[in-house]
Amino acid sequence: xxxxxxxxxxxxxxxxxxxxxxxxxxxxxxxxxxxxxxxxxxxxxxxxxxxxxxxxxxxxxxxxxxxxxxxxxxxxxxx
Length: 79
Known about the structure:
Layout: H1 4-16, H2 21-34, H3 44-58, H4 65-75
């Protein structure tokens, strides 16, 4: 059984030998659907929200999740 690195090297070599453009496009389509990093297009409003959130974090104007959980549990009268 091949390691993932060996398999990647084999696939790269095999793809390099292919000259059929439609087949290469089919492989590209498959790879595009499996790519882990996807580009997310944000609206200007979303960009502004992120910028504002970063400012608040820099000013330490946030509540840590553990503290929020404690407050939530108090509100629910749990633990």
